[in-house]
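Hi V.,

You were right to ask for the full record rather than a summary. Here it is.
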Amino acid sequence: MTEVSYFSTPEFVAFSLHVISGVELPLHIFGTYCILFKSPDSMKSVKWSMLNLHFWSVCLDWTVTFFIIPFVLFPTVAGFSLGMFNYMGLPLERQCYLFAALLCTVNVASMMLFENRYYLMAGKETMWKKFRIPVLAVNYILAFLYPLPAYLKFPEQSSALEEVLQKLPPLPEVILRHQITVYSNELIYFIIPIVFMTSVIGIETLIIGKLIHFHMNSVDLKFKVSLKTISMQKRILTALLIQTSTMAVNFLIPITYICSTIVFNYHNQAANNICFLVFSLHGLTSTSIMLWSHRPYRAVCSNLLRFKRSETTSSKGIQVVNSTVRRNTRIDIFRSS
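Predicted structure:
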């Protein structure tokens, strides 16, 4: 019997994602607290856009790391779930639909961060003021519509599973004892909607980025607002760019790997599992970068760490004083006797 690596097992995925969800929970709560109560007046204009992104990011995180816990057999679109939804009896095709929709809403919310900056800086004075709400609403509607082709073409399982097992190498018993579900055996219904939505959001983000760059470097802006205001806007934009770029890396690494497995028909279950671990870290890294890149939130963290350090120092000082008092008391007693 061939020995199976622990990294290839469902137990590794379940344990790792539970650990990640446990670490992320307090950080997500602290991030929400900072956005709501520690955003200064200079960040009020971006506060709700940041909260919107944080909300969808937390939803995606908990869907992956707690409610679904996916075990996927790339290069096929098949696998099973190990999370709470599985115990609740929610069919896997609905779990996949929800995951795909939330993945897109996070990207839409990321784009909205920069749209919000452009609208406040220059968009109010353009035709964009009339079209922004319908366009943003369509983006969110499309985020929940684009997974429908694959969902509606959910295959008949017995023949689809037989086809999948022929494409994969012999699977160990530790995997076969789970009920494997094939989400799609026609990749056209799976890949084309993803490419379409990625293109739409990517093009919108590039256009907004170009408009922001043009506005920030325009001569008229320097006569309308102070250099201090321009500097503040640039700092906020830089922080948002760092935050969203970090999230993009957590998305792009797994997506690049998944596409490679499909193109080269390559199966490595340990790499598949690690791929999802990298993806599930996006909320942890995004929240951490948000707290670090924005100066007001960084100050809150610094003050919190400084308070804990001073508290430890004070307790040590009290212990030293107490020990000194006890020592002096013993000396006085010895002398008096």
